[in-house]
Write a structure and sequence with these properties.
The structure holds two protein chains of two kinds. By secondary structure, chain A is α/β, with parallel strands linked by helices. Chain A is built from 15 helices and 19 strands. The mean pLDDT of chain B is 94. The chains are: A alpha/beta, B alpha/beta. At the A-B interface, helix 2, helix 3, helix 5, strand 8 and helix 11 of A face helix 4, helix 6, helix 7 and helix 8 of B. The complex binds iron/sulfur cluster.
């Protein structure tokens, strides 16, 4: 029987299998950030252990940083302390840090790929659930907790049980106005926020193959939102072209050797998955969420479902969620006014996202009732946006182009959505309080968010395409 | 913190909601610490207080109600989804829980819990429903979780159900071993792997 890509990568990284238990898995690259690493460094110090392979670790500051005036000291005391801890921990242990002010700084899942650190066939972990993003390159990448960060720092290994495997194929071509964010929101709405739990997902099919690397990252990024351990896409010519010439990508003879290996990373014809799902790309609409988990999404022309049909055990949670959002069962989502538009996060803050927004917004102005924050995923994205004149388009439209970081994705740093306000957001989570206490989040694609920025409400982008 | 678990006999604290994500268990704004202390008081912070104010507890929330106490937290399906923050497991453990029962756990949360000697017990939807119903009519209901036997039971009614845990993890929990101890003992094999 043939093997899936996942199995090929897994088998290559098993150091030892324990009878009736997990395997010891070797980790090629480890990303760290300020929020989930300090207690891991404390643990090492406590045990008197050094970092085992500091050169395989890359650090950045992203969650807790302000997105304006980054040249000034961080005002909030605890955030500043956390970032300072990262600086001293990295300096002491010899880990490369792309901190505030560094030209490579940015959201951890944006910088890994853009620097070429992320490469096909690798095992990659980070104390962050959206590590699944890196799967777009055909890597086995997944989020871990702080105890596990400590284990990887100490031994470059982890104890893992092999997950089940699922393949999701998206066949055919996407309709105009439908982008990769809509594909993944559609999938999660279909299988629910827990439908992928216990699985590692491979995305396949013509609609996936035709996506750019950045669009593929958006899909893999949100694998965790259906509970999956991670998601990956087989590397192909698109992947190789993206990687070639990147700062830390292999070059010369190394490149040829790597390429030969990368080309072996596809799922064999006769490989078997524990679960297979097929979706027709033509059935996917621009999507928007109406509730407080990412599985609560509908096509933008649709109605918020009613709780009547739900099993008794789910009714309560559903109604609590709709109440929190201040919406009604049976209500059309189109026309819902919003107060904030957030375009950013590791899901949609790359240069193609910014270009997509700028192209639509060019010559238009933001609606009076909204505030619009555009937060690039990295210093490099920010620089490129300025070089392309995208910053001017945003300025003319009345949008704020801020500095790189996680920003309003998680209500931890200074960028929070006020209580009761609606935010249409290109991020990945609409949980209660995710963007700030009692903030209300509607997840959507950058295009749908751009439309809301100029109209002040949720609309159907398909009606605005020429 | 208890570093090993054998048997837990306790009343339960029921939180009857599904898809409780780790942002609810501990909101991001409380993740600024650089040590592991003090997360317990922020457990379910936004469900616990009005206006984020400890002087204004929401009296209808279980953690604020004196009749609900114990070392076993019982929650609806898909518990611990979302962010990988281990702070969620720390908050639950520090608040005084040793066991979390649900009919479904998110993967990363489950690992984080196990790494902190917080035992996740996955039961059927039916058994979970039974726990909610019985404790609702009698908050003094006691539940016994026996790790050695891999059994959760209700002594007063005789109901019980077996639960799964892999042998390796079971040994760790019964004896208070960390994964890291094991991995450190593997150093020679790891170095040999790196050379191939
Ligand atoms: S942008 Fe949001 S989801 Fe991504 S790493 Fe930052 S906080 Fe996490």
């Amino acid at each position: 029987m043939g093997k899936t890509i996942f199995e090929k990568i897994w088998d290559k990284h098993v150091v030892k299998s324990i009878e009736g238990g997990p395997s010891v898995l070797y980790i090629d690259r480890h990303f760290i950030h300020e929020v989930t690493s300090p207690q891991a460094f404390n643990g090492l110090e406590h045990r008197g252990l050094p970092v085992f392979r500091p050169r395989q670790v890359v650090a950045t500051a992203d969650h807790n940083v302000p997105t304006i005036d980054q040249h000034l000291p961080i005002r909030e005391e605890h955030s500043r302390k956390q970032v300072d801890h990262l600086i001293s921990n990295c300096a002491r242990t010899g880990i490369e840090l792309y901190g505030l002010g560094h030209p490579y700084q940015g959201i951890v899942h944006v910088i890994g790929p853009e620097l070429g650190v992320t490469q096909p066939g690798m095992t990659i972990v980070c104390g962050d659930s959206h590590t699944s993003t890196h799967g777009a390159f055909g890597t086995m990448a997944f989020g871990i907790g702080t105890s596990e960060v400590e284990m990887v720092l100490a031994t470059q290994c982890l104890m893992q049980s092999k997950p089940k495997l699922m393949r999701i194929s998206v066949d055919g071509k996407l309709n105009p106005g439908v982008v990769s964010k809509d594909i993944i929101l559609h999938i999660i709405a279909l299988i629910s926020a827990s439908g992928g739990t216990g699985y590692f997902v491979e995305y396949a099919g013509e609609a996936i193959r035709s996506l750019s690397m950045e669009a593929r990252m958006t899909i893999c990024n949100m694998s965790i939102e259906m509970g999956a351990r991670g998601g990956l896409i087989a590397p192909d010519e698109t992947t190789f072209a993206y990687l070639k010439g990147r700062t830390f990508a292999p070059s010369g003879a190394d490149w040829d050797r790597s390429l030969a290996y990368w080309r072996t990373l596809s799922t064999d014809e006769d490989a078997v998955f524990d679960r297979e799902i097929r979706i027709n790309a033509a059935d996917i609409e621009p999507m928007v969420t109406y509730g407080t988990n990412p599985g609560m999404g509908i096509g933008v022309s649709g109605m918020i479902p009613s709780s009547h049909a739900l099993p008794e055990s789910e009714k309560n949670s559903f109604r609590k969620s709709i109440d929190y959002m201040g919406l009604k069962e049976g209500q059309l989502i189109k026309g819902q006014p919003v107060d904030y538009v957030f375009i950013g996060s590791c899901t949609n803050s790359r240069i193609e996202d910014l270009r997509m927004v700028a192209e639509f917004v060019k010559g238009k102005k933001k609606a009076d009732n909204v505030e619009v924050w555009i937060v690039p995923g990295s210093k490099q994205v920010e620089k490129q946006a300025r070089e392309e004149g995208i910053d001017k388009v945003f300025e003319a439209a009345g949008f704020q182009l801020r500095q790189p970081g996680c920003s309003a994705c998680l209500g931890m740093n200074e960028d929070k959505i006020p209580a009761g306000k609606y935010c249409i957001s290109t991020s990945n989570r609409n949980f209660e309080g995710r963007q700030g206490p009692r903030a209300r989040t509607l997840l959507a694609s950058p295009l749908t968010a751009a439309l809301a920025a100029v109209t002040g409400k949720v609309g159907d982008i398909r009606e605005h395409l020429n | 913190m208890n570093k090993s678990i054998h048997k837990v006999l306790s009343t339960i604290v029921p939180v009857r909601h599904e898809n409780i994500d780790t942002d609810q268990i501990i909101p991001a704004r409380f993740l600024k610490a650089t040590n592991k202390d003090g997360f317990g008081k922020n457990l379910f912070r936004d469900w616990r207080y009005h206006n984020d104010d400890e002087a204004q507890p929401k009296t209808d929330f279980v953690l604020n109600h004196p009749i609900w106490k114990g070392r076993i937290l019982v929650a609806g399906k898909n518990f611990g989804c979302g962010s990988s923050r281990e702070h969620a497991a720390w908050a639950i453990k520090h608040h005084g829980f040793d066991v979390v029962v649900s009919s479904f756990f998110a993967d990363i949360f489950k690992n984080n819990a196990l790494n902190n000697f917080l035992l996740p017990v996955q039961v059927s939807d039916k058994f979970l429903d039974l726990l909610f119903t019985l404790t609702h009519s009698d908050p003094s209901l006691e539940v016994l979780v026996d790790l050695e036997q891999q059994l959760i039971s209700i002594p007063s009614t005789g109901d019980s159900e077996a639960f799964e845990i892999n042998n390796y993890k079971k040994t760790c929990l019964l004896n208070g071993y960390d994964d890291i101890d094991y991995l450190l003992s593997m150093r020679p094999e790891i170095e040999a792997y790196e050379k191939q």
